[in-house]
Structure formats: C-alpha cells, structure tokens
C-alpha cells in the first residue's frame, strides 16, 4: 500500500492537474485529444479509486465551507460546466457533486431562455441562480451559451459578441471579488464518441428521454460550435477565472479531473472551522442544568 | 447469502415498515421509545447494508421519475421532515437524499421567517419551494413550524390553530391531487439523547457551528413542544398524507426507516420509462447519416 501523501504533495499534484488542463493561449479545441488522460496515467481502475479519496476530502472541506456560510462567511465555489451534447455534464453533476452533502450544493441547469428571461439582460437569470455563501454551485450550461449559440448560428455580429465578453469579464471579476471561486470547465468529447453516445440513447429505451432530435441538428453544426468554443477559450480565460479543457471521451477521467479541480478550489479557500459566536463554557453550564 | 427478495416481497416488507411507523390515532409521542427500531430487528450492521440496497433501488426509480418530469409528467415526491433540534434532519438530507442523483433532488430548509415572508400567508414560502415535476423534494422543517412554534409558545389561540390546520389540509390535498406524493416524517429523539448530541456540539470545535444558544431555550420548552407534536399528529394525519413517527435515537435506524418510506413512495408511482416523443427509426437514420 502506498504511503499517504502529505498536504504539500497533494497540493503539488493538484496544481499539476490544473496546469495540464488550463486552456493554453491560442489553443484550438480540435487539436486536443478527447481520449487522453492528462496527469492521470494509471488507468480507469486507479482513477476510480482516486475519485473516492478525492470525494472524501471534498466532503470534509465542503462541510467547512458550509459552516462558514452559516457563520456569516462570504465564500462560495461555482463550477461552470460547458460541453457539447453527450459530453457528460450530467454525469459530473451526479458523480462529482454527488460525493458531497446535497445540502451544501446548488445545482442549476440552463436551457433555452424562457420568454421572461428574454425580457432581461442575459446575465439576469445567471445572477438569480448564483450559489449562496457556503455552497458549491454547479451551472450545467451557463452565460457562455449566450456566446456559443449566436456565434455558432452566426446571429450575433462582432460588436455584440465583444460587448457580451466584456459583460462576462466584469461579471466574473465581480463574483471573484465577492468571495466566489469560479472554476470553468469545458468538457471535450470527440465526434466519434459523441456518435456512440447518441446512438446508445436511441438504442436503449431507458435512455430515450435523454435524446432530442435537436441533438443531431447541433451535431451537424459541430464545426461552427468548435469555432465558437475556440473563441470562448481565447477571449474569456481571465486570470481570476481561467478555462480548463477536460478531455471527456473517458467518463472516469472527466469526473476525476473535474473533482481534482474542485478539490483544489476548496483547498485554496483555506478555511478553518469558524469560531463560535457564543461562550462555550457558559453554554455547557446552561446545557448541563437541563440534564 | 440470502435469496434476492421478489418485488412482491419487497413491497410487503415496505408496507410493514409503513404500518409500524404510521402515527396511530391518539398517539402521544412521549409514549414511544425513541431508541426502538420497529420493523428492523437485525441491528446496525445489517441496517446499514440494507440502506445501501435501498439506495440503489431509490436511485433507479428517481431517474425514472426525473425522466417523466422531463417528458411532461406531473409526478413528484415531497418528504416533509420535522423534529426537535438534534433529531437528525440534516443527517437524513445527507445520507438518504445523498443516495440519489443530486440533479433529481430539491432541498429546502426553512428557518425563522424573513420580514418578506411574514408579509405573506404562511404557505407562501412553502409553495415557492415545492419540488418541480420529476423531483424528490425535501423540506427540512416546513409549514408545520407555523403550528408547532405558536402552539408551544402559547401565542396562537384555538381558532387560529384550527384555521391553520384547515389551510394545511386543503394545501396538502391540492398537492396530492396535482401529482405530488407527500411523505411526512416526524423524527423522534429522546431527552437524554438530545442532551448527548448537544453536548457533543459544544465539545467538538468542528461542531460548534451547529450549536445555537437557542437550542437550550427550546430544550427547556420541550414539554410544550411535545404537546404541540401530539396535536399535529392528531390533527394533520390525513388519509392522503399521514404522519410517520420515526424513532431517531439510533441514527442508522432513522435513515433506514426514512429511506424505506421514500422507496415505498417511489414504487407507488409505478412509472415506466417514458415513450419517446420522436420516431426512433427516423432519428437513427438521421444520426447515422452524420457518422
């Protein structure tokens, strides 16, 4: 059995993962290998065991974060998940966020905007869904849909896109300044793997509900979406909130890598248990008097 | 190894659990043994294993419920959890709801009403937090606080309480008619066990945040709360939404019994995977053309 790594070793390992996944300047998403497993070379079995270990540590730190939120702290973590259909966003929600206490989690999936949402600025519905202090939030799709969709469809002009990027940058800087750690993950699934996953949805009656005819329409427009992703990675990987591109053809890997990024964000908060807002000795005496 | 039980056997077993926990007419909560383990006599180790098995089954049925919600279905399940401080409501949220996909769960904890909430009818904030179709909702405290607190404090007169019970009955009947299965669980922790749990919160720095001086105030008023619970059980155990009283001195038991009640509710929905809203053969051909 391997020796338990020290806190410094864990930290160095997680930094290594982050470095290997951070979107490099000028990266083109189609140049990346969606089946690769950067920073984790020991295969699925080892990876799944490691996910369990990461989950336990995440769970402890999540409780500490929650305790802070309940004690007036302003910290929170927001995981922004983007990815083409079948990239595995739902699987991350289930198998990564599922590792921690559901009370400490705030999940939000963004679909096509409702008529009410369309009457507001595109960030309106996003702001409403931000995690409260003390929580880990997950956005399954996000404000980036408001760049990706019009970009891919060619329905927004360059000035509009520039204005949206500027609004997003300001928004995310504001979030970070307010105590929210923003972790942005683009899950990258290959064309071939996407085909297999869509086919499985059509072949298995228990997966039919996950399929929509729109999935093929979007698949046909895949090159336009890839270009839109390149643009997003190039223009919104801010110092305070960089993009990570996670290869997602291997589900175990995408879950492990995303959980490592999340654990790193939680460790960075560096939170102790909050001090009590009452006098412990006094309360012990009061309690004992009721025995 | 025991033979896997048939669906009928599982169902009969769950009915047995429900029968043993349903609040009997005229029950007095202080007559119940909070350390007992009705319907599960094989101890903690077996109980914890069984919780894992129940969790797997719950998880499957939760996904089916979610699929229905996504396909236009109107069914949902609402677990209403009540209990004195330290009864273990948070533990149920974590260890029971934590067994299923967090995407399919809607948790809401109700604290002291905010000024905005007080400007509305007491059911206003409750209605806003109802689980959407396809979800399992959990209320950690609920509209019953609006009976329990004024009853225990003696700040509501008989007419007011009667009006609230009537409003609650109408509300819950409306919920059930609209497709929501309502499972109401009162967790029952003894005076002695409550003392030990509060003491642990004061002794362990990692639990200080869970303690509030108000906990001792409420403990001092415990007889008044017990009488309020008796009143709630007597007057709001409706045929469509009965109360279950779950002995909670043994945490493993409270989690197991509550998960059994939840599994029974999910089985009762009797849902198949929803039919696709598209033609499968057509979509297979469209997809294959993109290969």
Automatic annotation (TrEMBL), chains A, B:
Chain ranges of the Polyphosphate kinase-2-related domain: 53-266
InterPro entries: P-loop_NTPase, PPK2-rel_1, PPK2-related
Domain of life of the native organism: Bacteria
GO BP annotations listed: polyphosphate metabolic process
Gene Ontology MF terms in the entry: phosphotransferase activity, phosphate group as acceptor
One Pfam family here: PPK2
Span of the signal peptide: none
Protein name as it appears in the record: Polyphosphate kinase-2-related domain-containing protein
Annotated source species: Cellulomonas gelida
